Amino acid sequence: MAEPLQLMPSTLVVDLQRLLAPERVSNSPEDLERFAGDALAAYRAFGRAKRVEVPPIVVATPKDTNEVSALAAYASKHGIPIIPHGGGTGVMGGAVPVDGSIVLNLRSLDVIHQIDREGHRVTVGAGAILEDLENALIPQGLLLGHDPWSRPIATVGGAISTNGMGYLAGKYGSMGQQVQGLEVVLGSGDVIQTPSVPKIAGPDLDNIFIGAEGAMGIITKATLEAFPQPEVRSIHAFRFASFAPGFTAVQEMYAIGLRPAMVDFAEEYPREPLKQPEEGITTLYLSFDGFKEEVAAQVDRGRKICLASGGEELPFEEADTFWRERHDSAERYKREIQDVGPSARRRRRAWRLDYLHVAIPASKVLEYYAFCRGLLIDRGIPVREWSLWGRPEYFSLMISDPSADDQGDSALMSQAVDDILTAAQDLGGSMEYCHGVGLKLTHLMQRDRGEAGMQALRNVKKALDPMGILHPGNLGI
Ligand SMILES: Cc1cc2nc3c(=O)[nH]c(=O)nc-3n(C[C@H](O)[C@H](O)[C@H](O)COP(=O)(O)OP(=O)(O)OC[C@H]3O[C@@H](n4cnc5c(N)ncnc54)[C@H](O)[C@@H]3O)c2cc1C
User: Fold this and answer.
1) Cα dihedral angle (414, 420, 422, 425), rounded to 10 degrees?
2) Domains in the chain, start-ordered, CATH in brackets?
3) Predicted confidence (pLDDT) per residue in 76-93, tens digit
């Protein structure tokens, strides 16, 4: 752990201005407030709600890897915590500063260094926005395999550091699975560059930094696989009577090795009234991507499986609208929160709902669904949605606080959330597959990894960040 700051904040600002440039270092109240938190709403942090807004002492915006390295060396020498910040869209509090820290705003590292069209790779700065990268790949006939809701607002470095999931994960995997090589600045300021190929000899260092939420190193550049644009993309929607038959359809596709590029399956409840014991509206959205003969065969077999499981195919417009509107929530977040500023972020912190995304063995999903349903009915907590995303193991639910006013008992929700997440761990799964650990789930990290696992992580961190300056406390290490 870093020692408390010995320098006066004003000395720190002058030193950093010397290392970078005056205009790249700010301690203006507006900037400190802007970088004081991310997209974790205070309500969802429960017992840690007071920690979701912690201003740093300074915000530094380095322009290249050399500046990141100089900054890390300086911070290590003086024991000052560094908090890497990409788009600030993380929903678990992974980018929330600790007291007395420097926020490293990585958005200026947004250069697309090379698009290797024949090699199906792209090398890009960590601060590039995912959508900007996607837009640069399209004219080259290439595609970014990571397509989250937050594509218009999240960065490459943030997506790797949370090992994010997107709509096309069924075919292309999580963001981490698309990484071929990384450039990373360690706590000491040393720079690691890993080979940029799909597989290397010996342990792959990339895996230490994927999903590490800034605690192991600062990613400055990444080489990602860039996939050929599919010859055909065929999108479909099926309605099911309830969760179980739709889940069975997904399982049966997996059983024959049929992997749709998109699997988005949800049982949703109308907002008013939220009568949880009743069945909701259950829809499975599928996309099949590839060359035309392959897609034709997949559509044919996928449709047969869905119909045989009791599904009814919905008009194409339903699937098409879903696909076209998939980034709307991020556009809204940008317009209504990011562009307005911290006051809007604070208002959003009062939303009284939570969303959970666990990874459990596919064979346990229906049992787990029944367990969660029973638990929530017993405790009178309404459910808005049950869902699967990407593959049968990735199960999500959205729940809302039953209390009618802001003075409700969030201890009820907090306990239910922990009980649901620990039940996933007890089934041999993990408490989160999509957004990472952050401030929200640090208290369950040891349970997820075990004591020896946590010690191993601490040892790795100690080797990469001997002064403990890289986001101290993140990942619970
Ligand atoms: C409306 C909305 C929709 C969303 N939809 C999705 C979705 O579909 N799928 C999904 O996976 N997530 C989603 N998210 C969550 C969020 O967008 C992702 O977690 C995203 O990957 C975070 O990227 P970021 O650039 O905003 O990272 P930040 O929030 O800035 O940082 C996230 C974490 O990574 C660390 N970090 C950032 N950059 C670096 C770096 N270069 N080196 C080392 N550490 C770094 C930070 O310290 C922090 O711990 C959504 C969020 C919102 C607000």
Assistant:
1) -150
2) 9-105+462-470 (3.30.43.10), 108-228 (3.30.465.10), 232-438 (3.40.462.40)
3) 999 999 999 999 999 999
